[in-house]
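We give the chain.
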Amino acid sequence: MKVKSSKGNCYIFKFGGTSLQTTECIHKVLDIIAGFDRPLVVVTSAVGGITDLLVQASADPALLHSRKDEIHRLHLRLAGKLGLEGASLVEYEAHLSETLADLDAAGSAEDGKARDLILSTGERLSTWLVAKTLEMRGVRCKYIDSRPLIRTDSNWHEARVDLAATDDLTHKALTPLIEKGV
């Protein structure tokens, strides 16, 4: 997908879990983003290892609580090492707690919709962490939850993306931000 604006083409960078494995790796990602001088959309995978924990939790509901605690601790430790503090840290911790609490309401992992929600948790946590850390560095950015922008059929866990609808919603959400230089 290519997003066009009056500022020219917008570039899309995707950083995988290995790029977010450690604070050193995350700092490299942040440096790349902060040093890029053109309109940019950033997509992140879950922090390395988090998806595996979520897969375990989705397969065995008895593991959910311990995996949630582990994920919470790991993300707070990363946030601290990345220098999040004060209001930014409080805001991130609130997002972290709220996002992980959603897992309790997700329902059974046998339900494809619940499994998809559980497995998307890592990306939502890492993207928020990257955005908050960039803001702390003075980089204009905004966290966007992509769930309202992506349209699929109802085949949960094996859904097909409606590319036309997703493209339209994504353009409507992102173009005004890109125009503002966010």
